[in-house]
Amino acid sequence: MSFDHPTKSTISRGPQEKPITRENLNDYLKELAKEFRRLNGTKIPAEVILIGGAAVIANYGFREMTYDIDAIIQASSAMKDAINRVGIKYDLPHGWFNADFQHTASYSAKLSEVSVYYKAYSNALQIRTVAAEYLIAMKLFSGRQYKNDLSDVAGILFEHKRRGEPIERDVIEVAIEKLYGDIQLPETSTELMNTAFTNGDYEKLYTESRESEKLSKEILVEFEQDYPNTLKGENISDIIEKAKQKRAAQRKDNSD
Q1: Can you tell me whether residue 203 is helix, strand or coil?
Q2: Contact between residue 176 and residue 139 where contact means Cβ atoms under 8 Å apart
Q3: CB-based burial of residue 181 (10 Å sphere; 0-12 exposed, 13-18 middle, 19+ buried)?
Q4: How far apart (Å, rounded) are the C-alpha atoms in residues 256 and 252?
Q5: Long-range contacts of residues 232-238, Cβ cutoff 8 Å, at least 24 apart
Q6: 66: phi > 0 → left, psi -120 to 50 → alpha, else beta; which?
Q7: Confidence of residue 11 (pLDDT cuts 50, 70, 90)
Q8: pLDDT band for position 4 (50/70/90)?
Q9: Among residues 12, 44, 74, 256, which is most buried (max CB within 10 A)?
Q10: H or E stretch including 187?
């Protein structure tokens, strides 16, 4: 099974793209429910399971935004028109609400089974999210160094520990097995898990992971500018690692 391959749009964001925050997420979902009800009525309500960044900002406070809403959508064809209408009303980019996630390696049909209730709107739309250990499993399985995958894992662990509801490693491992079977996580994900459950300092791990992700994204944006259309899933780790080693060597030289 292959991991998600990035495209230019997943590395760099255009100026026209608007961030989705916990505050405006609720507004967009409420408006989506209204539009869907106008088009579809209430005979067959829609169900949407928020995935990824949208699930994180809906349930946790450590992450400020995402740029699109990945979801598993179970609805009539009227939902597509409703999504387009809301996008036009709020001047959101094409694909602001999409089910593209279902075509990536991180998708599992069992996600519907482990989803949990979030909110209902206008008697026409029920929103669900992914339970914490399964959200962590998804993020670990994806393990993209240039996105929020690893920092999201650390952030979720930190918030649950702060709430007095710590998530144990064996719970996460069971979740990974349920969603993906016997798979090998990316090396960076395994390293993060080992660090997290060795020292338990999730807050520090979150900060370090986020800084590393920002640097990795910066490296890939520069690489894409210098060598357009050459980024592929299998070469990203090598590009990031070599660039970080080069920068570290330059800092050492400058300090000598």
Answers
A1: helix
A2: no
A3: exposed
A4: 6
A5: 232/5, 233/2, 233/3, 233/4, 233/5, 233/6, 236/6, 236/145, 236/146, 237/145, 237/187, 237/188
A6: beta
A7: low
A8: very low
A9: 74
A10: helix 187-199
Using CA atoms, how far apart are residues 38 and 247, in angstroms rounded to an integer? Answer: 55
Residue among 155, 139, 156 at smallest CA distance from 147: 139
Give the integer Cα–Cα distance in Å for 151 and 173. 18
Give the position of tokens 């007095």: 164
Where do we find the tokens 């349930």? 59
Any idea which residue has 């292959």 for tokens?
A: 2
Positions of E strands within 123-225: 125-130
CA proximity to 123, closest of 232, 35, 33: 33
Q: Whole-angstrom distance between the N-terminal and C-terminal Cα of the chain?
A: 45
Identify the CA nearest to 96 among candidates 112, 111, 85, 105. Answer: 85
Task: Name the residue among 193, 191, 192 with its Cα closest to residue 169.
Answer: 193
C-beta separation of 116 from 89 below 8 A: no
**What is the residue extent of each domain of the chain?**
13-130, 134-247
Q: Which two tokens stand for residue 102?
A: 């279902």
For 226-237, how does the pLDDT look when each residue is reduced to its tens digit (9 = 90+)? 988 888 777 888
- Rg over alpha carbons for the chain, rounded to the nearest Å, is 19
| Position 187, amino acid | E
